[in-house]
DNA sequence: AAACAAAGTTAGCCACAGCTAAGATTGTTG
DNA sequence: CAACAATCTTAGCTGTGGCTAACTTTGTTT
């Protein structure tokens, strides 16, 4: 028995890794695949940085990567990416209630999202649903 | 005229710097002074790291620091610390509406706060005020 | 097929912000 | 005042995640 070959260690993810996962899933959903050059453009970082990170994420079991060829999310990578995307959407929906500038919303969500725990997210989701039924109240906040 | 001696460059601050400022102000408010050892304990990092950072913050004009002696916030450091503290309070007040665990609130706020822009903060502040007048609605979120 | 451009990779660098270990300073106390 | 403990500093290290410059691979185009 050769012991475990890979040392999985539960896919912990940093804010940076979460950003990558989010963009990779989005690219796969819209274009069918995620190329290094597109990820780089989307995150506004260099291709070299992307190559580097993607290799780390392969090592962490979040995706399968083949040099010069391409990448696919693993099951756990995809699950993580989806939950990150969902969190992003919930926070965006919440902030959109208040008539803030779209760019600002994006920027704030992009920063905050990595730090919002599941219970807090759930509360914000429920709150957003309630507020949608109270446009008068929301209007007072927008002023 | 010896030109400007220090190169101020507008006190940009990272998340880490903001955490330090927040704790330093709190220590000054409660104990009258901020010692390296207390900052370290409060942020759960080593004293060496605190010394290091405090020296950088001195260089950045956020505080005045004298080796082995102590520190005082500069005017701009104090202004920044106060606005950080205010932001922290507003976010905490908001999350407290939903009956979340205090520790969780603290943790989430500690992570998110550095990424919330002034307009977003203002909206959340106004929303919190409105929600305080709508306990029935809030109760539906808490469930 | 040769040449070229686009995409990807590697090597080596940097700043940030933590850490430990070892040494310096300070204040207290016998 | 000598010695001690507490505090603080320095030196040197680490990992993360960027960067540029130079090189390689791939695919297209003539």
Brief descriptors of the model:
2 strands; 143 residues; 66% helix; mainly alpha
Summarize the model shown.
The structure is a homodimer of 143-residue chains. With 143 residues, chain A is mainly alpha-helical.
Descriptive overview:
- The structure is a homodimer of 143-residue chains.
- The first copy, chain A, folds into 2 domains: 15-79, Winged helix-like DNA-binding domain superfamily/Winged helix DNA-binding domain (Arc Repressor Mutant, subunit A, Orthogonal Bundle); 82-142, Diphtheria Toxin Repressor, domain 2 (Orthogonal Bundle), CATH 1.10.60.10.
- In chain A, 66% of the residues lie in helices and 6% in strands.
- Chain A has 7 helices and 2 strands; from the N terminus they run αααββαααα.
- Chain A has a two-stranded antiparallel sheet.
- In chain A, a hairpin with a 3-residue loop joins β1 and β2 (70-73).
- In chain A, α2 (36-43) crosses α3.
- Chain A is elongated, with a radius of gyration of 18 Å.
- Chains A and B meet through α5, α6 and α7 of A and α5, α6 and α7 of B.
- The first copy, chain A, binds a DNA duplex (30 and 30 nucleotides) through α3.
């Amino acid at each position: 028995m050769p012991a475990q070959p890979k040392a999985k260690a539960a896919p912990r993810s940093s804010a940076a890794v979460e950003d990558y996962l989010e963009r990779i899933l989005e690219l796969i959903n819209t274009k069918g695949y995620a190329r290094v050059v597109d990820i780089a453009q989307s995150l506004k970082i260099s291709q070299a940085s992307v190559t580097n990170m993607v290799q780390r994420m392969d090592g962490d079991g979040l995706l399968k990567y083949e040099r010069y060829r391409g990448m696919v999310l693993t099951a756990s990578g995809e699950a993580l990416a989806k939950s990150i995307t969902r969190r992003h959407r919930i926070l965006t929906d919440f902030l959109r209630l208040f008539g803030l500038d779209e760019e600002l919303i994006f920027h704030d969500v992009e920063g905050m999202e990595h730090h919002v725990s599941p219970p807090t997210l759930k509360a914000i989701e429920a709150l957003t649903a309630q507020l949608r039924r109270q446009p008068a109240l929301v209007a007072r906040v927008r002023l």
